[in-house]
Design a protein that fits this description.
Oligomer: single chain
Distance between the termini: 23 Å
Amino acid sequence: MVLLRQERTGVTRADGRIDARRFTLRPTVNWLIDPIVHMLAPDTTFFVQPGAPPGLVRFDGPRNFAGQKIRIE
C-alpha cells in the first residue's frame, strides 16, 4: 500500500465548508502487476482536516460487499 498526499481542498457539510487535505491510499505489488491491480482494486480517498489530532477524518469509497459508495463521518 502507498499513501499519497494530494491537494488541499474543502469538504462541504450541512453547516458549511471545512478546509482539508486529500490523501489517497493505493494498493501496490510491483511495477509489472500494479496496472492490473489498479484496474481491479479502487483507490481509497481520505479527507483530513489539519490540526493535532485531526479534527475531521472522512472516508469515501466502495468498501461494502454490494459495491455501493458509503460515507462515514
